[in-house]
Amino acid sequence: MTEIFTKGMARNIYYGGGFFFLLLLLGLTLDTLRELPERDHRENITESVARGKAVWEDNNCIGCHSLMGEGAYFAPELANVYDRYGNGSEETFGQFMQAWMKMQPMPTEGRRKMPQFHLSPEQVDDLSAFLIWTSRINDNDWPPNREG
Ligand code: HEC
């Protein structure tokens, strides 16, 4: 084998490597497109879930909270808040959310505060539906602990 690294060899590495990673990118993109519908269980996106997402966005909940790790880190992660307070029951979680949203801001000294949003009971129910749907997305069990 020759000791000299020629332009031809460099070109082969450039095109060969480029082609290899293009194929890898295409393969992974196809895999994502195939996996996503199962993971986000989009057949369960009801009208209420969609309205809840709009309430979530209009009130900028993500400005303080994270959802599946994305967002701000001022307040608790909410993709698993249903697991924390629902006790396996959508009704229990709905009641928790109604009470929680009504109680804010809490008067406790030295604790981070959540504002009062003055949402209607229907809007809070929609938020609950959205957060329940989010908690059931297959995100490889992120966050790794229930309190996260
Ligand atoms: C200005 C920051 C801020 C915004 C915006 C905000 N929150 Fe919060 N939220 C907090 C803080 C801080 C806590 C923790 C309060 C505590 O534990 O006393 C909290 C806690 C919560 C909890 C209880 C979580 C837990 O595990 O204890 C829920 C549910 C919640 N927020 C929902 C929402 C929703 C829904 C919105 C949007 C409508 C929202 N938050 C917007 C600051 C915020």
From TrEMBL:
Domain of life assignment: Bacteria
SUPFAM superfamilies named among the record's database cross-references: Cytochrome c
One Pfam family named in its UniProt record: Cytochrom_C
Transmembrane segments: 12-33
The keyword Transmembrane helix is assigned to this record: yes
Coiled coil (residue ranges): none
Keywords recorded for this protein, A-Z: Heme, Iron, Membrane, Metal-binding, Transmembrane, Transmembrane helix
InterPro entries hit by this protein: Cyt_c-like_dom (IPR009056), Cyt_c-like_dom_sf (IPR036909)
Residue ranges annotated for the Cytochrome c domain, each copy included: 47-135
Name the record gives this protein: C-type cytochrome
